[in-house]
Design brief:
Largest sheet: 7 strands, mixed
Structural class: alpha/beta
Strand content: 15-25%
Shape: globular
Strand order of the largest sheet: 8-7-9-10-11-14-15
Bound molecules: benzoic acid
Number of helices: 14
CATH class of the largest domain: Alpha Beta
Distance between the termini: 42 Å
Number of strands: 15
CATH topology of the largest domain: Rossmann fold
Length: 426
Amino acid sequence: MAKIRLVVAALLAVLLAACSGSAVSGGGDAAGGDAASEPADGAGDAASAPSEGAASEAAGGEPIDVGLLIPTSGVYALLGEDIRNGFELYLEQNGGALGGRPVETVEVDEGEAAETGVRGAQRLVEEDQVDTVVGIVSSAVALGVRDLFDERQIPLILTNAGADDLTGAAASDYIFRTSFSNRQPNYAMGRWLAEEGVEDLFIIAPDYAAGREQAAGAREAYEAGGGTVVGEAFPPFTTTQDYQPFLQQIRDSGAQAVHAFFSGGEAIAFVQQYQQFGLAEEIPLYGSGFLTDTTVLPQQGAAAEGIRTALHYAPALENPTNQAFVEAYTAAYDEPPTQYAVAAWDAAQLLDLALADFEGEIADDPEGFVTALEGVGEIDSPRGPFTLSDTHNPEQPFYLLEVAPGDDGQLTNIVVEELGSVEDPN
Ligand code: BEZ
């Protein structure tokens, strides 16, 4: 039964990728097909293979079943696609194996709300009986599934959802994160805005767990640096199509600058409407880097030019791992990678390194596998090497990015300066 689902998931992935113009890489192979086939030029090149110690030799032994819980519908569908791509690329570069063991993946849609995410997680855990789950974009979903993974002792590697408490007050031995906590990029941006003497800030974010936390992170750092927040707005999450009432609120507030968190489809709509409403010429727009990342930038176009944000990754970062990663990813999917793809590639690397150091089955010794995950140490990420904190969150620097034409004339996020790291709050 699980095998049938696997094949269906792989076919769906192929169809989805075909619809979006992306190539499909080795994860599709790992999901039951021919592991020897290449996704596209370059993705399997030795030059782009990850760090030594990763288990890229011929796979053997019982397969590891990995559940991929990602949005394939709704405002975050584009992000889910990037996560799938990043995970599959790593598998492709490693012969479809993690820790020398063949990998079978089952993909389930997390949807847009905690309920849909919980249903998806239950399916993966109870019906498909996966060994581990990778993914989750939305903090609402991640918070909703926390107890399931904690109580069942199934390792969950979050590749986006930044809910602060999951690596803080509600941390679990079984939950790891290769992305960020919501507070981090926003705190970095708020701190920079205050240091620059930017006055009278308006903060806007969608009304759900991540929006509230991202706004709070920006406010905390900005106020600590002496800034004044003149207004805040939280448009309904997933249902707001027309931002005009909120844009009017910003204009009426007398703000000198705006800090925004939106992502996926909402980031495209907000940035476009900010320009159409005439605010782009009146009040500079800043934010956490999801606002203008590579997932949304092509659709935002000129409306995004000049926007400055803070994030832990941009394709332009100069380090050898990133240069090889960008080359392999672009060859495979015909577009530059995002932080979502990086977090998924890093999650695969984390599992690979932990499994290489672990004997037996995860289900038989979940505590032993957590120890192996905790023992991984430095992860050789395209963002630069990073380690996980005691509560399993990346300790990493953030960068000030600006949307500007790159060498090829296309708009991209150029790296302006490093903003330093931000501690987890809890
Ligand atoms: C979140 O829900 O945690 C989230 C979603 C999109 C981008 C960043 C964070």
